[in-house]
Write a structure and sequence with these properties.
This protein is α+β, with helices and mostly antiparallel strands. The chain is built from 8 helices and 10 strands. It folds into 3 domains: 69 residues, no CATH class; 86 residues, K homology (KH) domain (GMP Synthetase, Chain A, domain 3, 2-Layer Sandwich), CATH 3.30.300; 65 residues, Ribosomal Protein S8, Chain: A, domain 1 (2-Layer Sandwich), CATH 3.30.1370.
Length: 247
Amino acid sequence: MTQSLEFNAATVDEALQRACEKLGLSPEQVSYEVLDPGSAGFLGIGARDARISVTPVSAEENAGSGTNEIRSSEHYAEHSNSGAYSEDDTAQTRKQAASQDFLDEIEQYVTQTVQKMGIDARVDVYDAGEYIAVDVAVEETGLFIGQKGETIDALQYLLNVTMYKNREYLKRIVIDSEGYRQRRIEAIQGMAHRTARRVAREQRPIELPPMSPSERRIVHIFLKDNGRVTTASKGSGDDRRVTISPA
């Protein structure tokens, strides 16, 4: 039986890159399990490294699966700043329904927090199956979302940490406003599609602008079945970005 090894770094991407360099393997030659996705913390507080368990995959196993296996622990931090469309939730988590009392508690917390921000808002909370949706309707949408989504992501992180502090984790709580998250996903996918076509046409690698871990993940997932290109995250910190290269 192949032995699994643990690696840690600031993000899951960086931990996987470190593992591949240490083992002398490509990402396609390993499978990995996210033991702890890590966290950037809130305003720098509570930051911790991501931690993964890596297992080399034989050529036969890799050919049979068609892709490297990615498994994740059922903890909110996997999705702390991601949108509502991550693929990491398990089927069991999706079937669990949130109680009305829990939904009411979330609505009260978000309403009071937004009011303290000096923003008038209408808050609607409902169980969307794979996640708990919090729709915040405000006049100052740009102010509520913040630059590159920093404000809405920080509020979402704080909401999840607070709601699950003294109760068992159920499913992600995702805050959205005026369809911002879906528009952002579509914008990133559009950029990835256009860049991939250019890479295939010009046969040279092209770097995308720096992105958050969740945004980089959108690119990787969107292009994973594109046989003409490959993707890899490079760089560190706020300058980490996806490079799309010819296959």
